[in-house]
Amino acid sequence: MSLTISEKLIEAINQHVQAAYPEEGAGFLLGVGGEVKEVLALGNAREDEARHNRFLFTPEDYLKAELQADELGLSLIGVFHSHPDCPNVPSEYDREWAQPFFSYIITRVDQGKSVSHRSWKLTEDRSRYDEEEIVVGE
Fold first, then answer.
1. 41 and 27 Cβ atoms separated by less than 8 Å
2. What are residue 20's phi and psi, to 5 degrees?
3. What own/partner pairs with CB < 8 Å and gap ≥ 24 does 128-132 have?
4. Measuring CA to CA, which residue among 104, 102, 49 is closest to residue 82?
5. What is the architecture, at CATH level 2, of domain 2-137?
6. Where are the domains of the chain?
7. Are 42 and 56 in contact (CB under 8 A)?
8. Is residue 62 classed as helix, strand or coil in its secondary structure?
9. Residues 108-130: tens digit of each pLDDT
10. Rounded Cα–Cα distance for residues 36 and 32 (Å)
11. Single pTM value for the model
């Protein structure tokens, strides 16, 4: 189980989550199968006091992502978000809001700098995540 993404798109994720620091930054992964072809960075719709450790997409955000994916001939295949100054392992909150079959790239951002990326998939029974390898291509 792996997720392929270009160095250019990893850099786009880094720029977005570093700019959001010390809050969580987030967006959608658009692609085909297990290959990310585009990222859609979005604002964090959570209330101000919760943005440091939570993110929220609005129904309009989902619609925007679906429409952009359709326009590009792609699918919505996952989500990326950051964990400021804490491990990039899914939290219980992440599990409660996740959808099976999506890839979830979590970027650890320490002191405003992206330091590592890990990707996870929620099992169909929603009981746990399995880690998937991130393959960075050109």
1. yes
2. -80, -25
3. 128/95, 129/90, 129/95, 129/98, 129/104, 130/1, 132/1, 132/2, 132/3, 132/34, 132/103
4. 104
5. 3-Layer(aba) Sandwich (3.40)
6. 2-137
7. no
8. helix
9. 999 999 999 999 999 999 999 99
10. 7
11. 0.93
